[in-house]
Amino acid sequence: MPHVVERPDSHLQEQEVAQRPWIVRVFNNDHNTYQEVMMILMLATACNAEEAYIEAWEIDHLGSSVVHEAAEIECRAAAKVISSIGIRVEVMQE
12, 19, 26, 72: most buried by Cβ count inside 10 Å? Predict the structure, then answer.
């Protein structure tokens, strides 16, 4: 008896995409200090100082860092706060 391969239900695929988290990626620049970046990250994402420092270090040394993962609306709100001090951000579905 031949093995039958069924095509996945496209509705299920749409649900999987909708359930994937959104992320906020922050990019390095030459004008914001570590302190500024840390403060805005703590304000925008409610992270603690240690996490904000780690993310600031990654931004500085790696060029960018994912600083937040949540629902789309929360990510867009966080990105708006972060970008308010001139930092380039990107919001996208992971």
Answer: 26
Q: Please tell me the distance from the alpha carbon of residue 83 to that of residue 88, in angstroms, as a whole number.
A: 6
CA distance 40 to 47: 10
Task: Tell me the Ramachandran region of residue 11: left when phi exceeds 0, alpha when psi lies from -120 to 50, beta otherwise.
Answer: alpha
CA–CA gap between residue 58 and residue 38 (Å, rounded):
12
- Return the ∠ at Cα 50 (arms to 53 and 76), rounded to 5°: 65
Residues 7-27 have pLDDT tens digits of 555 554 555 556 789 999 999
Distance between CA atoms of 2 and 48, rounded to whole angstroms?
57
CATH, range 21-93: 3.30.1390.10
Q: Which two tokens stand for residue 68?
A: 């937040």
User: Helices (DSSP H) in the chain: which residue ranges?
Assistant: 10-19, 34-45, 49-62, 72-83
